Amino acid sequence: MKSLVLAGLIAFSGAALAHGGHGHGHGASSTDWQARAAQAKTSQTVDVSACWIRALPAPAPSAGYFLVKNAGQHDVKLQGAASATYGMVMLHQTTQQDGMSKMSETHDIVIPAGGELEFKPGGYHAMLEKADTPPAVGSQVAMDFLFDSGEKASAQCEVKPANTKAH
Q: What is the pTM of this model?
């Protein structure tokens, strides 16, 4: 069992490192998202909870998982995220194609009116890169999530060990 978990982590780390080699220049930088978050007002209808980060050994990026709930009467689109802890935060989706796991950057993730969307291992997640100092397991990392409405939702994310599978 331990070898399967280790193999999975190595595969995830390898995919993340391979993905990291492809330019991310088309997305907004973390500084841009942080500036937007500083100006955004806190949403009264969208909430982010159950946030946690799977800490992976450097230089592999870490991954963030969370639950987004939209109590509003209109769909909202999650467009980006920011954290002062990480120099780069990107929204990704893992999909299966021809028996292979594929990870790709994504934007405008729809959270339906009155609904929710769980960001979890094997699906949507936040890819967290370029930490000045990787946060310690057990610590909390603040993150802001930005929506097409110009609003944000904030969450404290608990850093968990690399072998954690779910919240």
A: 0.80
